[in-house]
């Protein structure tokens, strides 16, 4: 009797697993499948990983494609990989990244809900500013990532990201604290670059205030308001 109950329990758990997998599969199929987005991003990565569209390929250790949830509600867009990102091939893993990731957690956003990418996929030598020809060469990759992930919110980090996403030359101090609407209807929320916040503690509070706005918009979308 005991054996039968035990076997029954195992079968029941297996049944629940199958139901859960089936539910996930159907949700993905009906909502524009996360597995589709994942494979599209993987396909794009294969196209991009050996890129030589500008001279930065000569000095990179790794191309930093981007990472996160392929179905993210929010995408964070930075400027370009720094030293640590170049070494690890992952965005925002150095000092600025630690500040950013902590700030994101502080406002209650889970890293599982986000996707992070940069305007440039390769590190500019000595972290110099991105050059116009590098941005022209690399921006189409970010645009493709945005088209695949289709985030409802884009949080632009710093001058280069904000100006290129909003297609403006206005300075970041005039743009942050405001919200914009992108061509695909997404909400664009500019904020300071976390690296700048390391040296300007008052900007950290503004970064947090902007991220709280991101969280508020996420909550509105998730609750269907
Ligand atoms: N700064 C950025 O803009 N992006 C990174 O990935 C790291 C630092």
Given this structure, which CATH class is correct?
Alpha Beta
Question: Helix- and strand-based class?
Answer: alpha/beta
Number of strands: 6
Overall geometry comes to globular
**What is the residue-mean pLDDT, rounded to a whole number?**
93
- Could you give the order of strands across the largest sheet? 1-3-2-4-6-5
Radius of gyration: 20 Å
CATH homologous superfamily annotation: Uracil-DNA glycosylase-like domain
Question: Would you list the SSEs in sequence order as H and E?
Answer: HHEEHHEHEHHEEHH
Domain count, please report it.
1
Main β-sheet description? 6 strands, mixed
Strand residue content: 5-15%
CATH topology: Uracil-DNA Glycosylase, subunit E
CATH architecture annotation name = 3-Layer(aba) Sandwich
Structure, described:
The protein has about 220 residues and is an alpha/beta fold. The chain has one domain: Uracil-DNA glycosylase-like domain (Uracil-DNA Glycosylase, subunit E), CATH 3.40.470.10. About 55% of the residues lie in helices and about 10% in strands. The chain has nine helices and six strands, in the order ααββααβαβααββαα. Strands 1-3-2-4-6-5 form a six-stranded mixed beta sheet, sandwiched between helices. A hairpin with a 5-residue loop joins β5 (about 180) and β6. α2 (about 35-50) packs antiparallel against α5. The longest helix has 30 residues, at about 1-30. The radius of gyration is 20 Å and the shape is globular. The model has no long low-confidence stretch (mean pLDDT about 95). Uracil binds near residues 79, 82, 91 and 92. Uracil binds near residues 79, 80, 91 and 195.
